[in-house]
Amino acid sequence: MKLTPSSVLSAIAGFVLLAGGVAAIDMQDVCHTQYSSDYTAVKDGDGCNDWKCLGPDGNRKGMNLNLYCYEQLGSGGYASCDRNAWGWSCKK
Length: 92
Description:
By secondary structure, the protein is an alpha+beta fold.
């Protein structure tokens, strides 16, 4: 099994979330989970909603962060953004 930085961060975030804490959202993992490993997380500005997933064809697709957090935390999991693009976290 090959460990990548994204998989290590996802595992750490999972442990934090299982402990009842709050973890920052790994936007790259969102793109990989919701589309494929060919997609890259990109930021078009500094606002909370400026993240997109960039495909190999140059097409930008939106992220469903509430769905991502629900999949990470289960029922009651949701995404929350505090102030700027770097302020996203999953909460329950």
